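BUG: 3D viewer hangs when loading the predicted structure for this chain

Environment: internal workstation, default settings.
Expected: structure renders.
Actual: progress bar stalls at 90%.

Input used:
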Amino acid sequence: MKLQKGPAIAIGSFAFISLWMLTGVFTSDNTAEIKAPVKSEVDTLFSVQVERFHAKPITPELVIHGETAPSRHVLISSEVSGKVTAIHKREGDFVKKGQLILEIDPKGKSQQLNQAKAMVKQKTLEHKANQSLIGKGLQNETRLAASEAELEAAKAQLELLTIELAATKIRAPFSGILENRQVEVGSYLRGGDAIIEVMDFNPFIIKSFAAEKDLPLIKTGVTAFGHTQGSEPLQGKIRYVSSTANKASRTFAVELEIPNPSERQADGVTANISIPLKTTDGVFISPALLSLNENGVLGAKIVNDQQEVIFNPVELVKAEALGIWVSGLPNPVDLIVVGQSFVSAGEKVNPVYKTPVMAEDVAKQVNVNDVQTSEAN
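Structure tokens produced before the viewer hung:
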């Protein structure tokens, strides 16, 4: 029986395919196997952006906060009783040492002073006469001693009245600015009543308080800088460092003295004291590049020549408006600026440098290292 053409073709095709498959199983052909493509190691590494930084000399500063104050400050009080008869200077006026500020009614003290002067003159003549008589044997020692005592009493009275009369004219004890006048013309004063304050702002000082950990860095006589609102840094010297701590805050008083030829300043203005410390090498970076490791140590993640991530501890040197200066990093240093949160210390990464120039620098550095290694071998 003859097969039809269609089934014959199907049977033939099946037989051919079966024979080919059996031949593939039992053949011992040693031709090369076809392998799937394998990704390179670089393609499997996590990419991070790296920037090369160079250290520069930087002078750190210890900054402590405080406020301005006059170098000298006194509240003038009345030494005598009487009515204020004249005021020559008012609040805000600048006065020089010895300049008249106001007057108090002397109440006849001028006449009493003239009388005291006459009494001293009289007692002086009597004492001289007694000295002459005793030399001639006409006077005894008792009378001479009495006349000498009377003369000294007259002199004491004269001196007392001179002081009281001078006290009716209130003068500036030193040059400065007048503030907080508490009397007016016609005010009656008793001894000890407050009159007016005098503040000396040349030099002026910045009063501050330093933490006990910073105390070893502050010495009297060292140069420092004062910063007040809206002014350039003003150079001065540390004039005082307290040796006794504030019991409540455990801080120590510090005073910076600043020359002030203008002799004008305000009391109680917010100010800072900046004390320069030892110069060191620092790198200027963004504070966002810093992190803490598992031990709470502050540092930054860098990449070494083997493309490994290293956690490098740092110390804060100085803070500025646009960033911070840190020390403790290699110089130069390849710092991870993008992706540092996704990699760990010891992990290999694919560093992508921020600029082509930096990549070229790294290539040159690698070549130099290779040459040095081959020379050493």
